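@channel sequence for tomorrow's demo:
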Amino acid sequence: MTDPLHLLRGTLDALILKALSDGQLHGYGIADWVHEMTDGVLQIEDGALYTALHRMEERSWLRAEWGVSDRGRRARFYALTTEGRRHLAAEERDWRRYAEAMGKVFAIGRART
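structure tokens (generated this afternoon):
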């Protein structure tokens, strides 16, 4: 397995929103989803994750409620709000355009002069 990559600035919110797009998860579940979906290439540090979750809740992109995890522990579960779904759609459009543009750049055989 390759070494994990550091998250690019601005990617954490998009990853969290996408992780929650199919339903609610607790913090560990979000981090695990990202790790799994990226074959271990992207990992989220706990401090960054919970800071982002609180910030996104304040922006009304997420709602949170207490529940019990599958391990029987009390956990805070996060879900997308309508505003969060709107923001995710915008993030997805922007990231697809960005990835397409970067793909074009790296497909060039050599730099133009």
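heads up for whoever presents: The chain has a mean pLDDT of 90.
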